[in-house]
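lol ok so funny story. i was supposed to be doing the assay writeup but got distracted and ended up predicting the structure for this chain instead. priorities right. anyway since i did it might as well share w the group, maybe its usefull for someone
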Amino acid sequence: MDVVIIGAGYAGSLIASQLENYDIVVFDKNKKRKNKSVTTFREVVDEGAIKNTYSKLTFMNTKGTKVEYDFNEEIFAFVDYQKLCDSLWTDIEEKKVVSYDKKGVVLENGERIEAKVVVDCSGIDGENLRRNSGINIPPRLIYITYERVDRLNVPDDTFYLIVGCSIYGGWIYPAKPSEIGAANLFKRKENVYYPETTILKKSYPEIFVESEIKQIFKEVYPYGFVKRVVNDNVILFGDSAGLTHPMYATSIHYIHHASKPLSESIKSYLNGYGKLEEYQKWWKSSWISTRKLKSIQIP
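and the output, tada:
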């Protein structure tokens, strides 16, 4: 086996699609992708996965201040996460990986699968897996609550980010159905909780006139870029490496941006003329580097 990929979310599906000409397998304990929220730049996602598009972005705070941006084109997209992943990769082995090392992985049934490269895209679900393997995990956690509602009193061509709240932040995504959400950031070992969207509704009651909650979801994501993402033949990618920021529409963009240097590094290694450490060097020197987060520039 050339490559074992752990996790069939966006990160795992994307890197699998870029390595499809090699001998690969994608393991996930659940073939059904999470029914989670994704907003990103329209140009990086498949058209069939888009729920709604936006040409405008509005930043708001709980005191009623707004800053509006009009890009004059549909630059952002609210995405159906399952369709997005399915558009990239559907050949998934529904099996749980319980451990791995530079030689391969061990499944829950005790079966060992040897591989030249292991790519860990298991996100928050794989934290114990990484701890048991002696690999660093992101230093913080983001707790998220989001609600899908039948209607909102806002234009369909604008999405909204709420900043400067007592909570870490929030968002409003007009669509069918629409969505509101809130996120809070914690250091590990702090008292953590899922934020409520109540503060958004109190601050902007006119937006939520006659809206009815259809579904409520809660999620946890690791946050904070891991400095060492290449460990022998094991590579951390996606949320496993802290490549997430679900509120500011950059999670998918980060992963999309990092996937090409990762896949090229794996290909050159498998073809015998490169090293996996080349991806670590790229990671350290790129704008994704932890040391450069304050001056991040999105190309």
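Helices lie at 10-18, 81-86, 127-132, 198-203, 251-270, 277-285. Confidence is low (pLDDT under 50) at residues 288-299.
back to the writeup now i swear
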